[in-house]
Design goal:
- The chain is an alpha+beta fold.
- The chain contains four helices and nine strands, in the order H-E-E-H-E-E-E-E-H-E-E-H-E.
- The longest helix has 26 residues.
- The termini are far apart.
């Protein structure tokens, strides 16, 4: 009796499951947001441009080239043109008016590098109407160590050389004083003496000249008012 053997079916692997591929979700931006972003960029750019223009704009003005004492007449070498950014808090003299300042007198001491303002200069003379100019030669012992400047107010004190002798007349003379304005301070000579031009009233001019001729003058500084 024959036995029929059926051929076995070939081993076949089950098909692999197909992976699910997700399609990217494209989100649509609203056109209003795009327009807003563009507007913000434009505004920022305009603001930046305005700020750059405002801060980069420079104006020619008059500056001080070297130290100038109070009461001195301005010379061409005292002034220089400078470029500064405009600022409403500052009121310097425009560079176009530089030549108009030469010959004017300073009302305050000017420091090198500072800006010149209208209030810093004047056309008024130091020697006013009704005053007299007297030159006084002062030895170093009778002259202040503090630098005197034109326009400065001082007190002229009579200090007789022989007041220490105790004589009545000299004692009375010592301590007499008058107010004066410094006009000019000369350079020291070989002995160190300086001539100081002082403006006093015409009534006191003769008296001061007599004191000066006798070498009986000493100066002290009058404190500024205010």
């Amino acid at each position: 009796m024959s036995t029929t053997v059926k051929p076995s079916a070939p081993d076949t692997a089950p098909p692999a499951p197909q992976s699910l591929v997700r399609q990217p979700v494209v989100r649509r931006r609203r056109s209003s947001w795009i327009a807003l972003g563009v507007a913000v960029i434009c505004i920022s750019g305009a603001a930046g441009g305005w700020l750059y223009t405002e801060t980069s704009h420079r104006e020619p003005v008059v500056a001080v080239a070297r130290d100038v004492p109070m009461g001195a007449e301005l010379k061409a070498e005292d002034l220089v043109e400078a470029q500064i950014a405009t600022d409403p808090a500052l009121a310097p003299v425009a560079a176009r008016d530089l030549n108009k300042l030469i010959g004017k007198r300073t009302t305050v001491g000017l420091a090198r590098g500072s800006l010149l303002t209208r209030a810093s200069v004047t056309d008024e003379p130091l020697v006013k109407a009704g005053e007299q100019l007297v030159g006084v030669s002062l030895t170093p012992s009778r002259l202040l160590a503090t630098r005197l400047s034109p326009g400065q107010r001082v007190k002229v004190i009579r200090t007789p050389k022989d007041s220490a002798t105790g004589t009545t007349d000299e004692d009375k003379a010592a301590g007499q004083s008058m107010q004066a304005t410094v006009i000019e301070v000369g350079r020291p000579d070989n002995s160190g003496d300086r001539v100081v031009d002082l403006a006093v009233t015409q009534l006191e001019g003769t008296r001061l000249a007599i004191w000066a001729a006798a070498g009986e003058v000493t100066l002290s500084i009058v404190p500024a008012e205010g």
